[in-house]
TrEMBL record:
One GO term of the biological process aspect: leading strand elongation
Name of the protein in question: (wild Malaysian banana) hypothetical protein
Domain Transcription factor CBF/NF-Y/archaeal histone: 58-102
Organism: Musa acuminata subsp. malaccensis
CDD domains for this protein: HFD_POLE3_DPB4 (cd22928)
Annotated region described as Disordered, given as residue ranges: 1-26, 123-151
GO molecular function: chromatin DNA binding; protein heterodimerization activity
Pfam hit, one: CBFD_NFYB_HMF
Places the protein is found: Nucleus
């Protein structure tokens, strides 16, 4: 019988760091619960589209495959965006580097959604500096943590 995903793992729980294979550096792993929820939401949406109303079960090995695949995709995208940044003579990776990197690694279908998300982000944060946005995000996180502790 295969174990269902959703619990904490033996190696330190969700969000714990792991050693990259063949590397001495620590690599942050995406939080297990976040990946699980994203996968279950997407599978449920796909099931609804097909008229299948059964509960979606995600096993641990599938969750690991999604987590590792996501990390590999992010690594690949970051490396290409960094290369494009260096080629342009800049030191800071910006949104245009990421958009161009998506095209370069053959994922142009994500560009339109990312551009829309960036535009929405800019409109929502118009007039704020990146420091103000980071401070605002940190304050919101602290408020969320406080309210969950109070519950």
């Amino acid at each position: 019988m295969k174990k269902k995903a959703g619990g904490s793992d033996e190696e330190g729980g969700s969000g714990s760091a792991r050693r990259a294979k063949g590397s001495e550096t620590q690599v942050d792993v995406l939080p297990k619960e976040v990946v699980l929820q994203m996968v279950k939401d997407m599978l449920a949406r796909l099931s609804d589209e097909l008229g299948d109303k059964e509960e979606v079960v995600v096993e641990d090995d599938v969750l690991l495959a999604f987590t590792e695949s996501t990390c590999a995709f992010i690594d690949h995208l970051c490396a290409r965006a960094r290369d494009l940044c260096k080629q342009s003579g800049k030191k800071t990776v910006d949104a245009d580097h990421v958009l161009d990197a998506l095209k370069d690694i053959n994922f142009p279908q994500f560009v339109r959604d990312l551009e829309a998300a960036l535009e929405a982000f800019k409109e929502e944060n118009a007039g704020e500096t990146s420091e103000e946005i980071a401070t605002s995000d940190e304050c919101q996180k602290q408020e969320d943590e406080q309210s969950s502790e109070d519950s």
